[in-house]
Amino acid sequence: MSLWTPGGEHEVPRDKPTAEPQQATPQQAPPQPSSSDIPEMDEQALAEALGIPSLDELSDEERQQLEAAVIQMAETERQMATTPPEVIVANHVMGLYELAAIHLRQNPPNLNEASFAIDAMSAMVDGLEGRLGENEATLREARAQLQQAFVAASSAAGE
User: 3, 9 in Cβ contact below 8 A?
Assistant: First the structure.
């Protein structure tokens, strides 16, 4: 089994842990439980453990709703897989723009919260410089507008 992280894919060991715990070093992650350490559960036991009904307990209407939700999730995943990542990231950056703008519109403005969102937006725009595609100039301009609005709101709050 492997685990995906932003740093890449890492193999997860499947062997049982040794009797002596291993000390983690900066180069070595602490040992992870293997799949053999996790008790096997059938569908009914898993449903009970999660507090949800099993498929056998669903009405025909509930099954249809579940099927429609699964189909919709699969379609969303397909769309995301076929959309260039820079478009999706740009959308998230604009979400940070909206978050900052919401906090700046409050009366009085939530300057700390707005600053955090602007800083997060800046980290993404600056950290991905040259990789945001055709949206990069728009994102930089949007950030500059937010920064100007933040300065104006800070000045007004200080008066």
Answer: yes
Residue 55 is predicted with a pLDDT of 75
CA distances from 65 to 58, 60, 94 (A): 10, 9, 32
Strands 8-11 and 2-5: antiparallel
Whether residue 96 contacts residue 121, with contact meaning beta carbons closer than 8 Å, is answered with: yes
Element (H, E) at 9: strand 8-11
- Dig out the tokens for 75 from the structure: 């379609």
pLDDT band for position 74 (cuts 50, 70, 90): very high
0.70 exceeded by the pTM? Answer: no
Q: How many residues does the chain have?
A: 159
Domain boundaries, the chain: 42-82, 85-158
Query: Angle 115-118-120 (CA atoms, 0-180°, nearest 5)?
Result: 110
The CA distance from 96 to 139, in Å, is 11
CB 97, CB 118: distance < 8 Å: no
C-alpha distances out from residue 149 to 18, 143, 144, Å: 58, 10, 9
Burial class from Cβ neighbours inside 10 Å (0-12, 13-18, 19+) for residue 124 reads middle
